[in-house]
Write a structure and sequence with these properties.
Helix content: 40-55%
Shape: globular
Low-confidence stretches: 765-773
Strand content: 5-15%
Number of strands: 20
Distance between the termini: 28 Å
Largest sheet: 5 strands, antiparallel
Structural class: alpha+beta
Number of helices: 29
Radius of gyration: 29 Å
Strand order of the largest sheet: 13-14-20-16-17
């Protein structure tokens, strides 16, 4: 066979492997791509969908959304990492149809994970069969599907393989384009909004440099000097990658100063969701119909952080087989990483974890050890391909005993059977059949009764069917009409010409933000939740809230303080808190929901209107300085009149004038801007019941004015007599400095790329040196 023919056949085989991989993903995501289905449930419905919807609206209007006025009486939007304003895949949201954009956004991330895994395994010289198997295991695993509804964990995790691949290509070639791609991918993973995942990825890559030598394609110095160079280039890529997105990171850092994370998260909250034995059992055998929407409602406290960590029956099998090949440095490395990820993921169930929390810098800034199972998940993904190749090679060369694989199959089968004996109803039969079929086929291959093609076919088909059948229930889809058909009460609230806020939830009973309505099934409860317009979902229909998920991920102190005040108050005080937060509309969820044939029956009397709620903006004649400790108690007291007096934590800047009057003539909202027009006869204060945070600037009649923190959470502006136009404008603190820093980093990255290109021109390839010798 000529070299050209061999090269052509190799390309054909690679193309078929990629086509095979793409066909598997297309089969799984067909309903999202072509049948109008959309993911839903958990954080996806309550957080991801409305947050991305706001970004889509901003892109369609051609604006940069610094501020979100719809939740928490207004909250920074851009400075939060979650919205992904500059996250490159967010370009999908320029597509006009939001459902199409969101579906493509999610499918793209699955494709990035599958493609990155395939490319990385091929860069490690893994066979096409092993590379496809690893890619499928990555993209169709229970861990990834469970992470999808936690959004930032999923978005961050998918970048690890392709980031590894880009730097492996740089190590092998030294070419500038791979270095630039590495820095860009580091920026992408950071913007995906899960910083701890980014830290762990870069840490894993650094350890990999120590452990695995590069496959060199050009002349290089001694191995030790080469390692130092590669480690230095990795650090430079990290610095430049983070520098590229300083325009996002600096505002985020400034916002964190108002977050509980600045002070560290206490151990109880930090470890609230740790990997329990029940969840870890799904590594061997998933729960039966774990996310079946026709079952009864599962309380949130019982649902856990991850629904499943099932990576297919071959993942635990190949970990056992991989112990036989521990002398392979790559296999040993990922076996150790699998164990390390488990050690961290068990969190509070690991008696040694408290030392990690206390001694590792920065661990107290992040939540939920269970997410660190992603290290174990990625290790399992890579071991599938690496161990498969070693297994095929040693079996073909008869360097593996005929009893080793059947023994490993028996061990895996015993783990499956033991897991099936747990209280949950589980069907172990498919897993046992797959193990038996693989063990039998491998034995026949060992004794030359079947060819390698038969073993590959059994392996790939079993792996794909196992992952799809077992994990499809973890990825519930619903018709897009679930989101696009507005709730029955939305039109009545939106018809109000004045801006007012909505509160949907309990008031007489304890306000529990995370409790689904009662319902005969989980699906019925989710439909009721949508009709009640739980925060944030109602923002899709034009609702504005005084609350939301407490603090979202940033954990802003004011958000938690408002929620705690509501939670710990008596019912009559709760109503007063809502009214003094500009809540005019309350959807009563205190009463149980009635259902007719599985559909919620929500009558109009669920919507309560508070006629005495404070308006969004109003004028008061005087101010009083109050200590922060006493302020909320006074503001929410029955005898306090917020229309006559505003409470400040600083000395009032205006002298009080008796018998002065004033009023608000108009209130207009625009992106990142609020304009209020007032009229008054004496000194006084414009009070705007929108959140106070640094970054808000005000101009009064075109001149710079003063923004005061009013009534603990809101904004006030001192005004003298006459008519005034008050313009509030929000620019995140750190935005301008970050933009400058990003520009400098981009220039430095270009210079670094030019320096690498110049060096490569003077460094001949290894092949050239060998020929000259």
């Amino acid at each position: 066979m000529t070299p050209s023919t061999s090269s052509f056949l190799s390309r054909m085989q690679s193309g078929l492997a990629v086509l095979f991989l793409a066909a598997g993903l297309l089969f799984f995501f067909w309903p999202m791509l072509f049948e109008g289905k959309v993911p839903f449930d958990r954080d996806f419905t309550l957080v991801t969908y409305p947050v991305k919807h706001h970004l889509h609206q901003a892109y369609q209007q051609g604006i940069l959304p610094f501020w979100n006025p719809n939740v928490h009486a207004g909250t920074p939007y851009f400075a939060e990492l979650h919205p992904g304003v500059f996250y490159p895949p967010s370009l999908f949201f320029f597509i006009e149809d939001f459902t199409t954009a969101l579906n493509l956004y999610y499918v793209f991330h699955f494709a990035i994970l599958a493609a990155g895994t395939y490319l990385l395994m091929r860069a490690w010289r893994v066979s096409r069969t092993g590379a496809v198997a690893s890619a499928w295991t990555a993209a169709l695993s229970g861990f990834i599907f469970s992470s999808t509804y936690l959004s930032n964990l999923f978005l961050g995790a998918v970048w690890l393989p392709i980031l590894f691949w880009a730097f492996e290509r740089f190590r092998a070639t030294g070419r500038a384009r791979w270095f630039v791609l590495t820095a860009f991918l580091i920026a992408c993973q950071t913007l995906a909004a899960c910083p701890e995942i980014n830290i762990f990825t870069c840490g894993l890559l650094g350890l990999w440099l120590l452990f695995a030598p590069a496959r060199r394609e050009q002349a290089t110095p001694a191995p030790r000097l080469l390692w130092v160079r590669h480690m230095g280039m990795l650090l430079l890529a990290v610095v430049l990658g983070l520098g590229l997105i300083a325009l996002q990171l600096l505002p985020t850092y400034q916002l964190m100063q108002h977050s509980h994370r600045t002070d560290g998260i206490d151990y109880t909250l930090h470890t609230e969701w740790s990997l329990s034995s029940a969840t870890f059992e799904t590594f061997f055998l998933p729960h039966a119909a774990e996310m079946n929407l026709t079952k009864n409602v599962i309380p949130v406290e019982q649902s856990g952080f991850l629904e499943s960590v099932y990576l297919g029956v071959f993942a635990p099998l190949f970990i056992v087989v991989g112990l036989r090949f521990w002398r392979d440095r790559r296999i040993l490395f990922w076996l150790v990483m699998f164990a390390t990820g488990l050690f961290l993921a068990f969190g509070k169930y690991n008696p040694l974890y408290v030392w990690v929390y206390e001694w590792v810098p920065g661990m107290d800034r992040f939540r939920y050890p269970e997410k660190y199972f992603y290290v174990s998940a990625m290790a399992s993904v890579f071991l599938v391909g690496l161990v498969w190749d070693r297994l095929m090679t040693t079996t073909t060369e008869r360097r593996l005993g005929e009893k080793w694989v059947p023994g490993a199959v028996l061990i895996a089968a015993a783990a499956v059977v033991n897991t099936a004996l747990a209280p949950e109803v589980r069907d172990a039969t498919p897993s046992l059949l797959i193990l038996f079929a693989f063990g039998l086929t491998h034995t026949l291959f060992y004794f030359r009764k079947v060819g390698p093609g038969v073993l590959r076919a059994v392996f790939l088909m079993s792996l794909f069917l196992d992952l799809v059948v077992r994990n499809f229930g973890l990825f519930p889809l619903i018709d897009k009409s679930y989101y696009e058909t507005e709730p029955v009460m939305a039109a009545a609230i939106r018809s109000d010409p004045e801006p007012n806020r909505l509160y949907s939830g309990r008031v007489v009973e304890d306000p529990d933000r995370f409790r689904l309505p009662n319902g005969p099934t989980r699906l019925a409860a989710l439909v009721a939740m949508k009709e009640y317009m739980y925060p944030f979902l109602g923002t899709v229909y034009g609702m504005q809230y005084a609350d939301g998920m407490p603090g979202l991920a940033m954990g802003l102190k004011d958000h938690f303080l408002w929620y705690r005040a509501l939670l710990h108050a008596r019912p009559e005080t709760r109503f007063r808190i809502l009214k003094r937060s500009n809540v005019k509309y309350w959807i009563d969820v205190d009463r149980p929901t009635a259902y007719v044939e599985g559909s919620p029956l929500i009558l109009p009397d669920r919507l309560q209107v508070f006629g005495d709620a404070l308006p969004r903006a109003f004028w008061v004649p005087r101010a009083r300085q109050v200590s922060p400790e006493r302020l909320l108690g006074l503001y929410y007291a029955e005898g306090f009149d917020p229309k006559r007096e505003v409470l400040l934590t600083q000395s009032p800047p205006l002298n009080e004038i008796s018998a002065s009057t004033g009023w608000v003539k108009s209130l207009e909202y625009a992106s990142n801007r609020v304009t209020v027009r007032t009229q008054q006869t004496g000194n006084g204060y414009l009070v705007l019941l929108d959140s106070y945070l640094p970054g808000w600037w005000v101009r009064v009649d075109g001149e710079a004015g003063l923004v005061l923190r009013a009534n603990r959470f809101y904004r006030a502006v001192p005004l003298g007599p006459g008519s005034h136009t008050v313009e509030f404008t929000f620019t995140p603190v750190g935005w301008r400095e970050g933009l400058a820093f990003s520009s400098v980093s981009a220039v430095l990255l270009v210079l670094a790329a030019c320096a690498l290109r110049r060096r490569n021109r003077t460094t001949p390839p290894v092949e050239t040196i060998e020929k000259s010798l």
